[in-house]
Amino acid sequence: MNERDVPRRRPGQGPDGNYDPYADSYYESGYEDQTGSGRRPQGGAGGPRGYDRQGAMPADRGGSGPHFYDPAARNYGGGNNLPDIEDEDFDDEEPSNWRRRTAMIAIGGGAAALIGGGAYAVTQFFGEGTDPANTGAETPVDTAAPAYVDQNQSLMNGQAGLGIRKNTPTKGNSFGTPADAAKNAKVTAKTVLPTKDPVRHLAGRLTFGPNAKTIADINKLGINGWIAKQLKPETIPLTRGEQKADAELVTWAMTYEQLKAQREDLDKKGIQADEQNVRYAIAKQLFSDRQLFEMMVDFFGDYFHVAAFHEGNELTRASFERDVIRKHALGNYVDMFVAGNKHAALLKYLDQDESSKDQINENLARENLELYTVGAFNGYTETDVRQAAMLQTGRSVRDNQYVYRPEQHYVGPVKIMGFSHANPDAAGGEAVQEAYFRYLALHPNTARYMAQNLATRFVSDVPPKSLVDAMAKTYLEKKSNIPAVLMTMLSRTEFWESVGQKARRPGEYLTATYRALEIGADAPAGFTSNNTNLSPMVQGLGDIKRKLEEFGHAPMELPTPNGYPDVYVAWTSAGTMVNQWNDAYTAITGGRRQFTWPKPEAIIASPPATAGPYLDALTKKLINVTLDNDRRMAILHIVSPTTTATTPVDATFNGAIASVVRAIFATPHHHLR
Q1: Mean pLDDT of 398-420
Q2: Acidic residues bias located where (predicted)?
């Protein structure tokens, strides 16, 4: 049966027809598999797996991709037992495999910090909540049901969510500038990260991973100056990597007409526009100095999500990225939303091209409400969905281009969440539709939903209500201006007090690792390839894309329209964690041969002659911290059981430099943003 022929279930409705508080916001009968996940079955090992209503996760829970936390089971069926890390996962020339496995578990904070799930994992990874009265009682949590339920909130309803709430500021104050807010912030939560380093905190939250240049730029420009420059990305020069991406990903700037005319020739060369679109996003994340802009592009790639590979969108998805997401990522969301609803890629993705006054399809109308504006259960009814679907008829696609078909437009009065219009004639239907889209994008519930999602991405998995309220207020006052909302967030103490409260998702871990290693976009001298149609860089981006697919986190590739989840408990996976460590080792040793990497023994130009200071120099350069003594010693013992801080070492760390660097990337300090 075709998916679009399956009757849709209301959002949050379980298979028995009753409300399911843990159901994903895209929980529909048409996309439900036999495990009760409430999602379309995924192809391959990656991709999200849904919440099992019976209290268990799928059998392949150790594999790649996000996992939906089971609040009833509290973990993934494995308790807090640590999985064995197979020798083949660490198949290199390092000394004792047993010693390395033991050390890596210790370095990772007991490994359960990233594996076990539930409250125990939160305590180990995010730290214990504070108890100012020292009574031993848990910090009270507001358990009132939210006005809406989305996938991030659903995931945080369990014990893990309660644990993180205990460590998240519940209120804050606004200041005139971000620097003033940073100066007045007081970090009270326990965390392994430094609590008095606002430069590191800013760089970790607003980039895909800081490198030495990022830290230097913030120190040079100051917090306010750096943020102001990032909010004007056009003033930041393109890097060498970006210039190569623009030149070598040849389909990126092509119009639909150009792609159509050259499709046969491109296909013969193995070049596909939708494939190159994903590689372009990866290149930008890795190489751009316009990091906040790229972070916002990625954010809207999840918030206003259109799958990268959808049948019929092969020649149009890149245009959606270019002309809708990137054009408005630091503009007004109302303009992005209107532009998206006038783009063939979105209309085809959600079957709007098959909707007419005689045969109405509700898909786009529903997701416009549920995902792209006000949020699930947030003020609309099934009648509103039906009315919106009727109003949107006539909006269609011809030859992969948007077209309005007045003869297919429903004529008659409509009323949707307070928006009402006589809609008296077909000729004027398109203007009525746009008025409705603008009404929806500027609705108070959209303001709060946008604020909630932005704060979840940049501040905490359970962002403080005080911060969300302030950001929503700015969203309305500034007519959906995204930079203004971001400035409100950055000028409040809640942002600066959230140190250690965001973990990197798998793709963010990879980019942060590569950026810390200062990956070069050029192939090394002597690199040869049998593929003359794709440059070394484009081939290398393809390799990285496939690795991200193993993680279940390649840009834009989630098939369902709700985008990747943002919260830590969605991604807890032993298999993904070990895969990340292994990929870091591949990068450290120059395994992705299409790029240039510094030799690990050259990361520090003039390394100290003893083990302790050398390790400190590496951690300061790569992850901007000095490790606690326990982790410090655990890493030193990778070199040999007798290595101490005063042991003489050479630039290769007595032959163990690659192992030492990988261990640094295995620390919670690097997994946390």
Answers
A1: 97
A2: 84-95
